[in-house]
């Protein structure tokens, strides 16, 4: 059985909800990633912030990224997957919520992230085609 831990990109890092968006952008640049899981004060997942969120929801609206926090932009219920979950469960979670990145949690700790690139490197063409059809389909 292929698990979430088998296909994830290890070493993901949290950014605290109270941290500003300019700091998030700097961390993304340093880690060469386009998204960061956002944690509350107890290091529990409370959302994900993307580089696109920073640009579209902050900068493009004339807000100051050195003032706006990651928590200000987090919306909805955060989605995640257990490290031991089967890859079919990973696909179900990503497809049913039309998401492109999924934090991987083990023993209540962040251990990695699964992105479209991870799926492309580890799944069959049929699995990838199904993912693309479901995630990019308009509702």
From TrEMBL:
Pfam families: CBS (PF00571). Coiled coil: none annotated. Keywords: CBS domain. Residues 8-66, 73-130 form the CBS domain. PROSITE patterns: CBS. The keyword Membrane does not apply. The keyword Protein transport does not apply. This is Hypoxic response protein 1. It comes from Streptomyces cirratus.
């Amino acid at each position: 059985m292929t698990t979430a831990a088998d296909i994830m990109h290890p070493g993901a890092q949290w950014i605290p909800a109270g941290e500003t968006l300019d700091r998030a952008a700097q961390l993304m640049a340093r880690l060469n990633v386009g998204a960061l899981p956002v944690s509350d004060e107890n290091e529990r997942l409370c959302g994900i912030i993307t580089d696109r969120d920073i640009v579209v929801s902050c900068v493009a609206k004339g807000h100051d990224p050195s003032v706006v926090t990651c928590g200000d932009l987090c919306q909805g219920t955060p989605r995640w997957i257990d490290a031991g979950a089967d890859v079919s469960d990973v696909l179900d979670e990503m497809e049913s919520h039309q998401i492109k990145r999924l934090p991987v949690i083990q023993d209540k700790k962040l251990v990695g992230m699964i992105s479209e690139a991870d799926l492309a490197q580890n799944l069959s063409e049929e699995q990838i085609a199904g993912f693309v059809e479901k995630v990019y389909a308009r509702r």
